[in-house]
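Budget justification aside, the reviewers requested a transparent look at the raw inputs and outputs of the sequence design task funded under Objective 1. We therefore reproduce one unedited record. The lines immediately below are the structure tokens for a 255-residue chain.
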């Protein structure tokens, strides 16, 4: 039986372009290869740390809730990236929530990654495609979050290309190898979230005053079981449900 530790993913090396006509040490070509190697080492470490984080969150309820209610802070604590300030975390988290509260955009993200399992797109290419998808899939809340970040001159921090590499690698590995615990109803789960707010958590001007945990297993999932193994989807589904609750309570409204 596969253990949790054995599920750590490796990073493909096809992102480092090969060069021909080798040059002596110290020349620009050698320095360029050295820089690419350094980037690869940092990316490999970050991808491994992201996977370790999701493995830990599968069974650690408190850590999972910390991530769900503050994803950018938790990610930057685990990764080799500069920490985010409180204003930066607020705007970055809002962007994450607006994406996960939009079932059509979540579905697009999963399909997009599936279409790029042979090669991870660059950050610029992904942003171009993501902006087009946001417009096509009714992402007004996403646009508002981006505009607020620009107006505040705070920007969006903590979301790096390493995350894109991680999910492309994860999906490729899950597609090729499968997961022993994956449910057989993956195709049904592909249709999107259809998640509705529970309406059981009163919202004050600051935050929820209570959080009531339900014991029943909910059948609707934001993340298709064909996209990622259960140790990842348990957290991403929770993130989507929280985002839907925030949207229902008007947390994304401007002003």
């Amino acid at each position: 039986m596969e253990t949790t530790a054995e599920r750590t993913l490796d990073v493909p090396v096809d992102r480092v372009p090969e060069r021909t006509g080798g040059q002596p040490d110290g020349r620009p070509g050698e320095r360029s290869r050295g820089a690419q190697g350094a980037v690869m080492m940092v990316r490999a470490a970050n991808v491994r740390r992201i996977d370790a984080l999701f493995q830990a969150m599968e069974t650690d309820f408190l850590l999972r809730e910390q991530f769900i209610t503050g994803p950018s802070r938790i990610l930057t604590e685990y990764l080799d990236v500069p920490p985010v300030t409180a204003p930066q975390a607020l705007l970055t988290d809002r962007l994450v929530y607006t994406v996960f509260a939009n079932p059509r955009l979540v579905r697009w993200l999963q399909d997009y990654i599936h279409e790029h399992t042979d090669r991870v797109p660059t950050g610029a290419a992904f942003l171009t495609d993501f902006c087009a998808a946001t417009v096509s899939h009714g992402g007004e809340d996403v646009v508002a979050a981006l505009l607020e970040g620009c107006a505040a001159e705070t920007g969006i921090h903590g979301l790096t290309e390493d995350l894109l590499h991680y999910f492309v690698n994860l999906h490729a590995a899950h597609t090729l190898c499968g997961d022993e615990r994956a449910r057989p109803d993956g195709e049904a789960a592909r249709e999107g979230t259809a998640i509705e707010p529970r309406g059981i958590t009163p919202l004050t001007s600051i935050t929820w005053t209570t959080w009531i945990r339900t014991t029943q297993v909910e059948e609707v999932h934001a993340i298709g079981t064909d996209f990622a193994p259960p140790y990842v989807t348990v957290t991403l589904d929770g993130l989507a449900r929280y985002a839907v609750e925030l949207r229902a309570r008007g947390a994304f409204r401007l002003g």
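The CA atoms of residues 18 and 33 lie 9 Å apart. The two ends are 53 Å apart (CA to CA). Computational costs for records of this kind are itemized in the attached budget.
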